[in-house]
Amino acid sequence: MNLIKIFQRIYLEQFGWAFEDEMSMTRTFNDLDNFHNRALPDSENKIEAIYAKLFKNNLFYLLAPILFLYLKYLATKFTHPEFLNRLVEKEMEE
């Protein structure tokens, strides 16, 4: 699972309401997926080279499930109504 797929799954589960339908979200992530496929560590484009060195190596692929679970937890936490209400109440107390 690459970084783009991780974000796509989180967006699909947590923020799917922001897109008209699943096809519009897929179209949005296709460009990012093309960037991921084209990025190589020895690329002349520095952004592609840095991205490939960080996110297209075996260590990242081993840690990707943990990263996915952590990002999913954060997305769930920050979109939960009770958490948001507590933030608003805390802010209003101050």
Explain what you see.
The protein is 79% helix and 0% strand.
Put simply, the count of helices is 5
Structural category: mainly alpha
What's the N-to-C terminus distance?
43 Å
Elements, N to C (H/E): HHHHH
Instruction: Let me know the number of strands.
Output: 0
Strand content of the residues, in percent? Answer: under 5%
Taking pLDDT < 50 over at least 5 consecutive residues as the criterion, the unreliable ranges are none
For the largest beta-sheet, the strand count, sense and barrel status come to: none
Quick check: average pLDDT? 86
Computed CA radius of gyration, to the nearest angstrom: 17 Å
Which percent range fits the helix content?
Answer: over 70%
Shape assignment: elongated
Summarize, please.
By secondary structure, this protein is an all-alpha fold. The chain has helices spanning 3-14, 22-38, 46-55, 58-79, 81-93.
List the helices and strands and how they pair.
Layout: H1 3-14, H2 22-38, H3 46-55, H4 58-79, H5 81-93
Characteristic key phrases:
mainly alpha, 94 residues, elongated
